[in-house]
Amino acid sequence: MIEQLTDMDQGNGYSPPHSLIWQWQGLDIRYQVAGTTGPVLVLIHGFGASSDHWCKNISVLAEGHRVYAIDLLGFGQSAKPAPELEIEGRSPYCFETWGAQITAFLEAVVKEPAFLIGNSIGCVVALQAAVLEPNQVRGLMLLDCALRQIHDRKLQTQPPMRRLGRPLLKRLVRSKPVVHWLFQQLAKPNVVKKVLQSAYGNGDAVTDELVELLIQPSREPGAADVFWAFINNFTGPLPEDLLPQVSSPVQILWGTADPWEPIELGRALADFPVVEGFVALEGVGHCPQDEVPEQVNPRIQDWVAHHVIANPSEACIAVV
Question: What is the pLDDT of residues 88-100, one digit of tens each?
Fold first, then answer.
C-alpha cells in the first residue's frame, strides 16, 4: 500500500523529501518525493547507488517541480529478491525489468507523464522506460550514460587481450562464491572511497557521509547476489539500441573527466536525431549530479522549463 503525504505536505510551495514505500510485484520499492507544484521529475540512480545519490538535487529541484527519486529493485532500500525470481519472465536485475518498474511507478504513483533524469545505468533504464511507454515520458536528461562496454556485442571493439580474456572472465563471474568474495572485498568504506575518488573529477567531493550513504545498502541480505546478477549481464539493450526508438526529446550531460564512460565515446550518442544537445562538463567525473549540483540543477530546471513552455498542454495529460 502506498503511503500518503500528510495534509500539511499537500499544501502549496516547498516540502522536504519524504521517504515512502510502494509495492510492486509484491516487493517493497523505496522512493523519495518532494515538491507540490510544477512539472514532474523522476530521478534514476546508477549502479551501486540509490535515490540518496540525488540528495543534493531533490530539495533544490522541488522548489519548482514535483520530484520523485526511486531506488531500483535490488538497490538502496528497495527489495533484493533472489536472482532466480522471475518478474514477468525476466531476471529481476536487467534493464527490461527496471524499465518496467519505472513505467509501473509512473502509472501507479506519479499518475502523469514525467521528465526522467538518469545517471549511469539509470540513463539506460530511463531510455528503456521511454521505449516501453512513450506516452508517459515528456523528456529525458542523461548524465554520463552507461555505454555498457562489457556487452557481448561490443567485444570486437575491445583490445585483443580483453577479447581473449572474456571466456575466462565469464567463467569467473558465473561463480557465486568467487563473486561473493569479491563483493566483500569491495564493500568496505576505504575501498568504496577510493573507487569514488577515482570516478569523481574532484576527489574532495567524496565525503565520509557519501561513502556511508552508498555502502549501507551493501550490508543488507541479498546485496551480494544483486552484484553477482548484474556483473553477469553481458546482453540486453544498449543506449544506441534504445535511442532510435525514443520519441521524447533527449538532453545529454557528460563529465570530461569521467574515467568509466569516456566522453569521446559518449559523444557518439549525440548523433541520434532525438538528442537535442550534448553538454560537456569540464573536469567533472561520472556522477555530475553529486559532484557539481550547482551546475546540474540549473541545467535541469532550464531544460525542463523550455519544454514546458514549448508544450504546455502536455502538463495536463494524465497517465491512463
Answer: 899 999 999 999 9
pLDDT in tens, 154-186: 877 777 777 777 778 888 889 999 999 999 999
Cα–Cα distance between 266 and 268 in angstroms, integer? 5
Please report, to the nearest 10 degrees, the dihedral formed by the alpha carbons of residues 122, 16, 34, 93 taken in order. Answer: 30
CB atoms within 10 A of CB 182: 17
pTM of the model: 0.91
- In our burial notation (b when 16+ CB lie closer than 10 A, e otherwise), range 60-70 reads bbbebbbbbbb
94, 98, 103, 108: CA torsion to nearest 10: 130
CB-based contacts of 18-22 (< 8 A; 24+ apart in sequence): 19/77, 22/105, 22/108, 22/109
* CATH classification code of 18-313: 3.40.50.1820
The H or E element spanning position 175 is none
